[in-house]
Amino acid sequence: MGELFRSEEMTLAQLFLQSEAAYCCVSELGELGMVQFRDLNPDVNVFQRKFVNEVRRCEEMDRKLRFVEKEIKKANIPMVDTGENPEVPFPRDMIDLEATFEKLENELKEINTNQEALKKNFLELTELKHILHRTQQFFDEVSHAQFVAGVISRERIPTFERMLWRVCRGNVFLRKAEIEDPLEDPTTGDQVHKSVFIIFFQGDQLKNRVKKICEGFRASLYPCPETPQERKEMLAGVNSRIEDLQMVLNQTEDHRQRVLQAASKTMRVWFIKVRKMKAIYHTLNLCNIDVTQKCLIAEVWCPVSDLDSIQFALRRGTRSGSTVPSILNRMQTKQTPPTFNKTNKFTSGFQNIVDAYGIGNYREINPAPYTIITFPFLFAVMFGDMGHGLLMTCVALYLVIRESRILAQKSDNEMFNMVFAGRYIILLMGIFSIYTGLIYNDCFSKSLNMFGSGWSVRPMFSTKGANWSFETLDRNAVLQLDPAVPGVFGGPYPLGIDPIWNVATNKLTFLNSFKMKMSVILGVTHMLFGVSLSLFNHLYLPLNIFLGFIPEIVFMSSLFGYLILLVFYKWTAYDANTSKDAPSLLIHFINMCLFNYNDPTTKPLYSGQVLLTPLLRPFLLSSFVVIKPKLQFSGKHAGRRTDAKMTRSLQFNFGDVAVHQAIHTIEYCLGCISNTASYLRLWALSLAHAQLSEVLWSMVMHLGLSSRSGGGFFGLSIIFSAFAALTVAILLIMEGLSAFLHALRLHCEICRRRFYSLTHGGRPRQRQSRLRVLFHGEI
């Protein structure tokens, strides 16, 4: 995995490739996938580069393959995908590939042309057959008149009839009959409904008008004999020709299917070969050619840890094309290298989540390893339900177990592919949801009575040892339990929340307080963790530790860290007997921020509060007013990302830097408050998910369980199906997507800002250049 917690250390290297081996060397480097070539000809037009003709030939082969692929899809023939990664063809093999593709394209075009002509002839004969078959009754009604017979699309009949009436002034007689079976259009292949018509008229003038109207409406006119005997003989001849033509069409279609099926077996391999060749020649166009025309010079970014693998790939490429070895020479540069993070099938999903918002600068902390734990955990805090988490885990496990088969099938469903790519993310989200559901004691909105209840069911003002009778329980809909009376465990519930809260009328009040405090604690801990990570980014400029990291960590610890300590202190210092006298945390925190340490109306939370709280004032003030000068603009402290020319030309203005940093400091301090409030979404979405689950149970599932009739089982089956469908659609998909997006925001917009600089001048920072390699992501 290399350096998992930072981007890989990169170096700029110069390659000297012999002309005979350059193609093979680039091919080996592309298969390795560890180098990014730089363009050494930025001022040269694309059409003036050395290998432009080879690129055009590859594009032409790709066009021919796309034509064949279109024909294969039109014929509904599946393309075989064995997952094979073929080797790159040698340059001399390009002529054979071009000849193969040219022959295949010409053969398919010839087959299509012949087939279209045959289908057109078949359509004409079929239409003539329907005319001869259906016009006999028309001739019985009208005799001794000129006529025109033909076929027209059925939807054009009303307009066609009105046009004939208006142009011919009602001096024509139109008869029509529908053709029951649709006819195939030879050009588009669509099924078209048509009708047979015959028009009777008198005189050549009307004849010309009728034919022009028929031509305008794209009606097909056919010769039709006047006598029944002639029509019968012509119909017999037409039927015979249709049978012969149908046999030829079947043979043509069989030949076309054989050609396409043979091509479908190698289409993917051909595509990969052609596009790899195109990528190689495109890369060779980025290189310089020395004056002797015998050597190509390239510059590449590559990981330092993979230099041995790159050298070995160059040796493999050289053996296949030249006796002179290729040379790799590391270069010194002040340019910022691209960011490169190695991933595997487990970490790639989390790395994609991180990179979707912004890619860190070179050698900055990579948030992906920490996101593997924090992202599914914060999701589970909002989604926490044992039942829903178990369903999500089962779906993800199915995708993980059958991942090899699913990858081999190569699904084209974009939504499914996106879910499959995040299968390990979904798996961890489901596992963490089971854990948080266990803590909340919530399974499909119901509690599990695993250890019994820790409350004692005794009246609040009864004598010790007197229990409620069944008569008392039957007469009273609501009873109050005394928290001061010790229960079964004599202390806190062993794991999670006591199941008795599920039937309590003040359940929501209790959970509101619990989950709100929990959200603040998790949020402040998450932000402090992000600030702590910034320490590793400041190691390149140690002065930032004293002027950036320490004031930030002191400010958050003195304000919000102190608040968390007060929450834990109040939980442990007060019990059921003394909780009524406990002072308000909110009032105490407000007084601390207003420097009001001697409020006579508020009881101290702990002894020594009046002495300890004022000590936090200098820490808050010092961290708030510290202004960190941007020392990277001075030549003495120039950072590694500062260009030397810019350093010499730019003058250091302490006043502007001080004002800018003061604004940044105020924004940071205010942002800490607003971001802490943003973590309250953990509380809000958790309660929303629990309430939706409870409403769904009470309004759907409860109806089936409360039935006492004989057909209750069948009703319960139907209701359970509706309950399962709504659970998947609303609570798993919609609520899961909502919790996913909110967890993504908490990571990207709030936590990563603590150790990344993702904005500059009030605008989103441009994405850092990421390592781009051949073949990977292009094929």
UniProtKB/TrEMBL annotation:
GO terms for cellular component: clathrin-coated vesicle membrane; melanosome; plasma membrane; synaptic vesicle membrane; vacuolar proton-transporting V-type ATPase, V0 domain. Pfam families: V_ATPase_I. It is found in: Cytoplasmic vesicle, Clathrin-coated vesicle membrane; Cytoplasmic vesicle, Secretory vesicle, Synaptic vesicle membrane; Melanosome. The chain crosses the membrane at residues 377-401, 421-440, 520-540, 546-569, 610-627, 711-744. Keywords: Coiled coil, Cytoplasmic vesicle, Hydrogen ion transport, Ion transport, Membrane, Synapse, Transmembrane, Transmembrane helix, Transport. It is a multi-pass membrane protein. Essential component of the vacuolar proton pump (V-ATPase), a multimeric enzyme that catalyzes the translocation of protons across the membranes. Required for assembly and activity of the V-ATPase. Belongs to the V-ATPase 116 kDa subunit family. This is V-type proton ATPase subunit a. It comes from Nothobranchius furzeri.
